[in-house]
Amino acid sequence: MSGQLQTTDNGRIIPKSKNADEKALAKMIAGMTDAIKHALPRHVTPERMGRIVLTALRTTKDLHRCSPASFLGSVLSLAQLGLEPNTPLGHAWLIPRNMKKVGWTCTFIVGYQGYIELAYRTGKVMGIYAEVVRDGDVFSFRRGLRPDLIHEPKSIDIEPKSITHAYAVANIRDADPVFEVLNRAQIEARRNRSAAANADISPWKSDWEAMAKKTAVRALHKWIPKAAELSRAVAFEEAPELGRMQSSVFSDEVTEALQSEGLEIIDHETGEVLSEPQERQPGEEG
Fold first, then answer.
1. Under a CB-based contact definition with an 8 Å cutoff, are residues 83 and 51 in contact?
2. Lower CB count within 10 Å: N or C terminus of the chain?
3. Is 201 exposed, middle or buried (0-12, 13-18, 19+ CB in 10 A)?
4. pLDDT tens-digit profile of 34-78?
5. Span between the terminal Cα atoms of the chain, in Å
């Protein structure tokens, strides 16, 4: 498959691809340039997001099989958060899942670096980081009136199975530092609630340590100042854990953009159509 891109006269990006499904999704993205531009924050251009998404289509197995509504809904939702999917930045991942009632569906999860990026946008978080603790490390923490955390890494084992804890620490402007600690069992419990944990392609399988750190940062969310984007990222991840589909958290702008393209929003668990596509008016492009 060629990695080159074609650019039309109006500047829209279309890939050279032998895969019909991939070409169809890419063409739909090109046709939604205005919707993507409307969703994006100022520091991310639609051209950059378009290139990133097309690269994800080429490099992520089965992503091209996903329904257009789930794929484009995920793309636009990440665009609103200003997070780049499936890049070395580790902001977020688009995850294809073959679901019993509706077939291939695109979901997404926010990564460790994505949560940190969103936390900094509050303007009140001065510093935030996460670490894992391994067998052999010196590690202790205490709560109460004088909370404290001590970690002296000793182990040189890099295998995920050696990890016993993950923790996250945030320095807040005009406030004391806050931290959250999760033991291995707590991390695994949260992993098991993740819709993407058992997907064929999942960062829980390829980047367990980074996901453990992300889980600690997410747990820290309740102690740090909230930004709208950070709260929405948590809502997207909590939806499958609460038995809901991520499309139930799509913003009105994303839902309207999908409807304007003639796409149905479907409950991934029941197969029920939740949002009917809008009928195109005479003279509108198909």
1. no
2. C
3. middle
4. 766 776 666 667 777 778 888 888 888 889 888 888 888 898 899
5. 28
The model's pTM: 0.75
What would the two tokens of residue 56 be?
């994800």
Q: What is the mean pLDDT of the chain?
A: 80
| 12, 34 contact by CB (below 8 A) | no
DSSP 181: E
Q: Which residue matches tokens 């409950």?
A: 267
Asked if residue 124 lies in contact with residue 114, where contact means CB atoms within 8 angstroms, the answer is no
Q: Which residues pair with 99 in a beta bridge?
A: 103
| Neighbouring-strand partners of residue 132 | 166
pLDDT digits (tens, 9 = 90+) for 155-212: 888 888 899 999 999 999 988 999 999 999 999 999 988 767 777 777 888 889 999 9
Q: Any idea which residue has 């091209």 for tokens?
A: 64
pLDDT for 189 equals 93
Q: Which amino acid is at 285?
A: E
Q: Alpha-carbon distance 48 to 140, whole Å?
A: 44
pLDDT score at 139: 97
Q: Which residues neighbour 256 within 8 Å (Cβ) at sequence distance 6 or greater? A: none
Cβ density class 87-104: b for 16+ within 10 Å, e for less: eeebbbbbbbbebeebeb
Task: List residues bridging with 148 in a β-sheet.
Answer: 142
